[in-house]
Specification:
This protein is an alpha+beta fold. It has a single domain, classed as Aminopeptidase (3-Layer(aba) Sandwich), CATH 3.40.630. It is built from five helices and nine strands. Helix 1 (9-20) runs antiparallel to helix 2 (32-41) and helix 2 (32-41) packs across helix 3. The longest helix is centred in the last third of the chain and has 15 residues, at 117-131. The chain binds coenzyme A (COA). Residues 27, 105-108, 113-119, 141, 145-148, 150-151, 154 line the site of coenzyme A.
Length: 180
């Protein structure tokens, strides 16, 4: 059975094993070695930080720092760790700051891809976003990310003509609104 679980110590070995296999939860850059070092240094601190999406800053491609915004992160679990899904939002609005390209992001470990897992995970996350007051979610993907595009379309994603502006070095994006 596929579940969303809160990052926690009881799931951390599975997460760390995926990092050790070279999987990176950040699709923009390879953070596997850095995260693995953090896990080894402080397991409890790592999971505590993981759950706090709104704390700290994000380093942009041009080196500037931007505030994180609130959100939720879940680890994907089928009896083993299989990926992550998160969403970010501003309370009371569906607008996002310019440096946040979409509400939802997800990644499935390569050895569990093409089993419908990302599609199912998004289906589990959308009602949680709705409970937080978000009636529709903006999701973006690279124009050539067919797998992600199919996940989005499976949930009724409506194509948005004007994708959010690109950051330096980013590929052309496709943007969609998905009803939660
Ligand atoms: C995108 C990603 C999360 C999809 O995960 P997944 O669990 O394999 O997705 P699903 O099994 O639910 O597949 C969804 C659809 O994409 C198709 N698909 C999956 N992998 C594919 C691939 N590499 N090439 C083409 N189509 C693919 C599936 O056949 C399925 O199609 P269908 O709905 O017509 O049957 C996964 O490829 C991934 O983690 N990629 C790297 C991170 C990433 O790109 N995240 C998204 C950022 S927007």
């Amino acid at each position: 059975m596929l579940r969303l679980v809160m990052p926690g110590l009881n799931y951390l070995d599975g997460y760390a094993a995926a990092l050790a296999r070279g999987w990176s939860p950040d699709t923009g850059k390879d953070v596997s070695a850095a995260q693995l070092a953090q896990v080894r240094a402080d397991r409890a601190g790592f999971v505590a930080n993981m759950a706090r999406l709104d704390v700290g800053t994000l380093v942009q491609p041009d080196g500037t720092l931007k505030e994180r915004i609130s959100g939720r992160i879940a680890w994907l679990w089928d009896g083993e760790f299989y990926g992550v899904i998160n969403y970010r939002y501003l309370h009371g609005t569906e607008d996002l700051p310019a440096h946040v390209s979409g509400h939802v992001g997800y990644a499935v470990v390569p050895w569990k891809q093409r089993r419908g897992y990302a599609t199912r995970a998004l289906g589990l996350m959308l009602p949680i976003a709705r409970q937080d007051g978000l009636r529709r979610a903006l999701i973006t993907c690279d124009f050539d990310n067919e797998a992600s595009r199919r996940v989005i379309e499976a949930h009724g994603g409506a194509f948005v003509a004007d994708a959010p502006p690109l950051q330096d070095g980013e590929k052309q994006k496709l943007a969609y609104w998905i009803p939660t």
